[in-house]
Amino acid sequence: MSAETPFEITLVSNHLRTNFTGKIAEAATGTPEEKESNFLSRALAAFAIHKLSGCALDDAVGSVVDGGSDGGIDAIYHAEATNILWVVQSKYHRNGRGEPDLGGVIKFKTGVEYLLRGNFTTFQANAAWQELIPRLPTIFGDRALQVRTVLVYSGINLVSEDRRRLFENLRATFSADADYLQTQVCNLTTIHDWITGADQGPGWSFWRSEMQRSNGAPMPLPTQQAMEVNHGATC
Q1: Which residues in the chain show pLDDT less than 70?
Q2: Sign of the torsion formed by the C-alpha atoms of 157, 152, 38 and 122
Q3: For residue 95, what are the contacts with CB-CB under 8 A and spacing of at least 6?
Q4: How far apart, in Å, are the Cα atoms of 151 and each of 71, 74, 143, 154, 225?
Q5: pTM confidence score
Q6: What is the DSSP letter of 223?
Q7: Which of 85, 80, 100, 90 lies closest to 47, judged by CA?
Q8: φ and ψ at 116, to 5 degrees?
Q9: For the segment 195-212, what is each residue's pLDDT rounded down to a tens digit?
Q10: How far apart are CA 214 and CA 192, in angstroms?
Q11: Closest Cα partner for 73 from 122, 142, 136, 141?
């Protein structure tokens, strides 16, 4: 017997369509389902940037870089007021279940590593990156900069240990004793909370507490799921 589709997924898809249709390009190839999932994944990346950085929707749309030579990064946005660089990978799951696939997460981790090492030419073949690349040396030249990597996906499953370990290793390399680099994971429950306003309530669930849960088992999460690689830090 197949698992029941979480009711939240319908609200999420409707919300993304309402806010981003006509603003984010539709896929030109693929089956209708593939095209829809592609659009909703890109819209989800923009929505995450909007909610986490506080920027306007139009600015969030402009942050989407999903495409060839994107390094696994679907959206990137520098919030000047807070000096935080938000780097997002998104995945839309039509059935409201699952987690980001390991290969995709590895690609994202590698893209983030290129970014942190200043290998910006990696992204030059991507037209959406070309406007940002000239600004990156100045952004990374500011010693007060903080980087937030985000995995956002429309499934209720928790992120498995092998995915978490990738970003724990990344933080150990670039930010072992500082708050410079943190990773946040947002699943279907988080996205639903963003839409309904439940994220405004008290409490964030951090990466450490997340690791105490069962490994990847699908389960509803209380409030907003934000699991930080930097234990105890808030965004």
Answers
A1: 1-2, 201-235
A2: negative
A3: 3, 5, 9, 155
A4: 14, 10, 25, 10, 11
A5: 0.85
A6: S
A7: 90
A8: -70, -25
A9: 999 877 543 333 333 333
A10: 22
A11: 122
Task: For tokens 């500082």, name the residue.
Answer: 178
Query: Looking at residue 76, what is its pLDDT?
Result: 98
What letter represents residue 111's amino acid? Answer: G
* Polymer length in residues for the chain: 235
Kindly list the structural domains of the chain, giving each domain's residue range(s) and its CATH number in brackets, ordered by start: 8-225 (3.40.91)
Structure tokens at 69: 């030579």
**CB 89, CB 74: distance < 8 Å:** yes
Sequence-distant (6+) residues with CB within 8 A of 22 are: none
pLDDT confidence of residue 199: 79
Asked if residue 187 lies in contact with residue 153, where contact means CB atoms within 8 angstroms, the answer is: yes
With b for 16 or more beta-carbon neighbours within 10 A and e for fewer, the 180-193 pattern comes to bbbbbbbbbbbbbb
Which two three-digit tokens encode residue 52?
């986490």
